[in-house]
Amino acid sequence: MNIQIFGSSKCFDTKKAQRWFKERRVKFQYIDLPSKGLSPREYQSVKQKIGFDALVNTKCRAYEDLYMAFATPAAREEKLLENPALFRTPIVRNGKEATVGYRPEIWETWE
């Protein structure tokens, strides 16, 4: 298993995901989403598995400040990649598999 957790240090679900993998002694790589972001290829891989709408946090302040609800689909993707604060966290990847949010019921099937 090659687990990657993309998240924010301030996000409680990210902390819960890290704890879940630590308790099961599963090694993972943590990537701080606000500072590092997702590479375009990682983004495409996750988006293909989950879908664009599941990746966007519509409840964050940046969503309103950037007028994401009124942007065209192409502009929304561009703004999402430029502003990692718009992502819902944690994004957990295992190769080509991916989840958004705290989803231990899916992670158990990865083992």
Could you please describe the fold and organization of this structure?
- It is built from 7 helices and 4 strands, in the order βαβαααααββα.
- It is an alpha+beta fold.
- The protein has a domain at 3-56 and 88-110: Glutaredoxin.
- A 4-stranded mixed β-sheet has the order 2-1-3-4, with helices on both faces.
- Strand 3 (91-94) and strand 4 (97-100) form a beta hairpin.
- 21% of the residues are buried.
- The mean pLDDT is 90.
Tell me the CATH superfamily of one domain: Glutaredoxin
Report the total helices.
Answer: 7
* CATH topological fold name of one domain: Glutaredoxin
The low-confidence parts are: none
Helicity level, as a percent range?
40-55%
Total number of beta strands: 4
Q: What percentage of amino acids are in beta strands?
A: 15-25%
List keywords for this structure.
4 strands; alpha+beta; 7 helices; 111 residues; Glutaredoxin
Mind sketching the topology for me?
Layout: E1 3-7, H1 12-23, E2 28-32, H2 33-36, H3 40-50, H4 52-55, H5 61-65, H6 73-82, E3 91-94, E4 97-100, H7 104-110
Parallel strand pairs: 1-2
Antiparallel strand pairs: 1-3, 3-4
Task: Please outline what is shown here.
The protein has helices at 12-23, 33-36, 40-50, 52-55, 61-65, 73-82, 104-110, and strands at residues 3-7, 28-32, 91-94, 97-100.
